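Two proteins were folded this term; both appear here.
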Amino acid sequence: MKRKNVWGWLLAASLPVVLAACGDDDPPPKAKIAFPETEARVSESDGTIKSFHPDIGTGLKFGATTGRQVKFKINFDKPLNDKAVIAYKLTGTASNVNPNGTTDGAVNDYSLAESGTGYTLDDDNITVEKGVSSIEIAINVYEDLSLEATEASYVEATDSYEETVIFTLKSVVSGPIDFDVATQPEYTLSIYEDDTYISLQWDTSGSGGDNLDPGDADLDLFIWSEGETINYSVNEGTAFEDMFVPAGFPDAVYDMGYPYYSGTKAVDFYATFINLGGTVGSTNKPAVEYTGHYTVENVNTYSADQEGEEGHEHYKGAPQIIQSLTKSKLSYPTVTAVVIPNGTSRIGDNVFTAKYSSRRSLLLKSKATDQPKLFPAFTKEDDTTARD
């Protein structure tokens, strides 16, 4: 009887020890994962040179450009007790593939930073270090030389043209993370186009209506800054002109020229500025139309100066400055009145370097190819002023 009691006492005494040992072997609780913010919306550039893609910064001699950075967080509800690997995927309409070697300046829309505090990232997985409770992933968004404004990219809710980056968590490859595969949490970044589209149209009927009749008139469209041609549109014949200016171009004064190349009638012309990322002029509107009037005395062609080097042709008859815009980040707060020169729409035999500046090889690949089909409402202004 005594022996039996001894064994019973030993068993009872050892039981808590055994149970405690089993408890120590239980796996620690896993961390839950979440995006504190699931979406964001930004302009393609911040209105500065730095926002251009590095390839374009080099090609345009802007120096080192990095794009603009947008960061988003992934939170864990407790510090990770071990390293974790999480599979992810990228979708959306924006591209992170750089078509290297193209001749038209095409670049990728964005890239992901490959590392940050507490994590590294490759094409398929995020590796998060032990002890981390939150990581912040950086998306590098790049300004480019393409006007990406088509009906397919138009978003009615925001009245803008957008591309998207969708970052989706797929599964846990390894590590102490509690993840519901069915939910697949995701973060969406919307990038809206912010360039300024410029069109020049004209009418020879004198009716002033919406049905423009170009007649036999041929006008051209130039924009330049500090003596260098930034962009131009010189369609042959009576086709209207259009072009655009990237929002990442430097803050500066940009001069507009609307030379009357050929024709036999007086024309009313309409210069329309549509800023997809900011405003134009003192009206603080996204789009403004300025009007002017040419007589046949303003007709003036230009001729090539054969002494110009190939790719840097010189022309006689520089376009007159008809109006100027002052750029500040994403907007053009100051736009001068349209000034019509007496007589010619060009400056006599003055020689100017046009069309093929050293930056032209990369510059503004789409011109009017992807011109906007849906415009915000614009304000019409009759800013015709005779030059003294």
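Next, the second protein.
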Amino acid sequence: MKRIPAVFTAILFLFASSIFSYAAAETVDLTILHINDFHGNLLPKPGKEGKPATGGMAYLAKMVTEEREKNPDGTLLLSAGEAKATRALLGRLRLELGQPAGHDELAFLWVVDFPVFEMTAEGGLAPAHHPFTSPQDVREMEAHPEQARARAYDLVLNGTELGSGSVRIHDPAVQRRVFSVLGISDEEAERRFGWFLRALRFGTPPHAGFAVGIDRLLAVLLDEPNIREVIPFPKTQTGVDPMTESPTPVADEQLRELGIDLRLATRAAMEGEGEAPPG
């Protein structure tokens, strides 16, 4: 069964009159239906024994009607397209619409149930966080890896992510099963992560990690939209540190020790004969 064509993202705005009230509204009552999640029911099906056909646009109209009856004063968005791109765009829309005018009130939020894996452009699987994040259910991960949930969490304050973390895998057998889902053989795992896997075999206790960005927290508390204003010695947008005037040129002896060579254009720029090309 074919999915709806992924024409990047198409968003249809229903009940458009309410969309303009977002800026002034204290709360936004928003419902989103991702059409691809219902693609099987959106394909017309012939009726049986003289009954009318089902599915198709009639099914979509039924869904819209039901949502409107649940919340006649709310706003409904329909999205269609490749799921990852669509959800990313809708996420930015949600952040824009939900951004508070100020930070007089502090609303903390834990975000949980992150996926263990995400789909790559080639159709394979890749770690959504990192390959050492503990899954909530190992058997579910092996049976339905695209639906598996990780023991990971984010802390959000007034729409700003303060920090993130996860429970790590401490059992070598579980780690091997995660690698297997990712298509990483025992030989490749030993070659790439041997030092880590050997440490697990010594009996690593259950452990987790989490860190809060103090600069992000200060930006919210001070109602400062530009995070660089709360960092003592911020770098420029090109990565230059004005206080230490770094980065500075590296001696040829150090480059040779590391087996690194510089392109001629880069050397010329370092000597003041021009600007280094990007990349």
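The domain at 103-212 is CATH 3.30.930.10 (BirA Bifunctional Protein; domain 2). The chain has nine helices and nine strands. These notes refer to the second protein only.
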